[in-house]
Amino acid sequence: KTEDKNLDGVSIYLCVSLQGGVDNEVSLTAYIAIALLEIPLPVTHSVVRNALFCLEMAANAKENHVYTKALMAYAFALAGKEEKRKALLKSLEKQAVKKDGSVHWQRPGKEPDVDLPYYRYRAPSAEVEMTAYVLLAHLTTQPVPSQEELSFASLIAKWIIGQQNPNGGFSSTQ
Predict the structure, then answer these.
(1) Nearest residue to 130 via CA among 113, 154, 106, 163
(2) So which domain of life are we looking at (predicted)?
(3) Is the CATH number of domain 2-163 1.10.3720.10?
(4) What is the CA radius of gyration of the chain?
């Protein structure tokens, strides 16, 4: 379903099918919801409410990509929808790559990392981004993250820190 909403003179399309760095219409809707909630617009605002409704319907689908789940988990965290946030994080944890005392997520079907001497592998930017969104979803909870969530978040942060380039930056522009 395509919906055109006007927010202070800016047209926003929710649940549309567009490509361009975004995996699908659900990812695009999650990006928009995150941006609006970070403004911050209240969850009662009609555009935010409609975006969250679309995400709630999509969250029940089994075929969601890991990147899309990470975006939705963060959007629900910002919206204060704890049950949806927790359900997505539980699903994401099952897909996590746990290695060398750290945790991260990678795209389905990706070839395993090759351990070569004198070479430090750095993940593609999409994997850094989705892992960072999962970290944000763990840390964005009310009133505060539990000790268990903080412990798990530290394992995620460890992996992200390992992805820094020699100048302290990341391959991602997000």
Answers:
(1) 106
(2) Eukaryota
(3) no
(4) 17
CB of 44 within 8 A of CB of 32?
no
State pTM to two decimals. 0.83
Q: pLDDT tens for residues 68-120? A: 999 999 999 999 999 999 999 999 999 999 999 999 999 887 665 666 565 56
From residue 162, alpha-carbon distances to 97, 170, 171 in Å are 14, 10, 12
Taking the C-alpha atoms of residue 40 and residue 4, their distance in angstroms, rounded to an integer, is 20
For the chain, give every domain's residue range: 2-163
Instruction: Spell out the SS3 assignment of the chain.
Output: CCEEEEECCEEEEECCCCCCCCCCHHHHHHHHHHHHHHCCCCCCCHHHHHHHHHHHHHHCCCCCCHHHHHHHHHHHHHHCCHHHHHHHHHHHHHCCEEECCEEECCCCCCCCCCCCCCCCCCCCHHHHHHHHHHHHHHHCCCCCCCHHHHHHHHHHHHHHHHCCCCCCCCCCCC
